[in-house]
Amino acid sequence: MGGTGRRQAMQENAASPSPTTLTPAERVATTEFVSPPSHDEERLDAVHSDTPVRYRTVNNLIGEDALGPGLAQRELEEASLLPAGPGEPCSFAEAERDEAWRAAMQEEMDTACVTCQQYKADHLRPAGLLQPLPVPSAVWADIGIDFIEALPKVQGKTVILSVVDRFSKYCHFIPLAHPYTAESVAHAFFADIVRLHGVPQSIVSDRDPVFTSAFWQELMRLTGTKLYMSWFI
């Protein structure tokens, strides 16, 4: 098919709302009309040559009508090799929000991705609905707590326990030795925070094993402190 014929065929497809199924040869021939060159061409090349893929042409441009089966599997495999973000059980946290990816992940990732089965299983309970934090009304009544790690060793301490008052933004930085435990963190917390400011009404933290441990949970329950934890670790 000559250049004029291909261009005319694409214009006819653009006027028609129905999807068009392209053969591998036509798929290669029509990529030269995608303007400007972008990631779309890479996605076209990533599809297995023997897998028909449905496309829809709009304004003489080619767009995927749906994820091809070969493309879904390949991109899942490539994404599984990426390091997970902080606290994310796998690298699909963003993809899960896309409606087209949910079906592909449900079908492909659960059984086909060996990497995810071995190393990226989700061990967290399903996250609840996001809720706004209560507005603090007094100093040191509502605090945030977190760890700063991998610091140069100073007097045997390589970790800082950061405690921030959500009302005044005043901070305490408590040095800790690594490894630390729920018991050692609780001892430092009561010695440096509760001793000076009293027992807080609420604590905002991530899901570090210290804060999810039975010891820490029971200790805060006995003191009447409410725990607010983020979704990620």
Automatic annotation (TrEMBL):
Regions of compositional bias (Polar residues) in chain numbering: 10-23
All residue ranges annotated as the Integrase catalytic domain in the record: 130-233
GO biological process, one term: DNA integration
Entries under Pfam families matching the protein: rve
Signal sequence interval, chain numbering: none
Annotated spans, Disordered: 1-44
Stored PROSITE patterns: INTEGRASE
UniProt-listed InterPro entries: Integrase_cat-core (IPR001584), RNaseH-like_sf (IPR012337), RNaseH_sf (IPR036397)
GO MF annotations in UniProt: nucleic acid binding
Protein name: Integrase catalytic domain-containing protein
Lineage of source species: Eukaryota, Viridiplantae, Streptophyta, Embryophyta, Tracheophyta
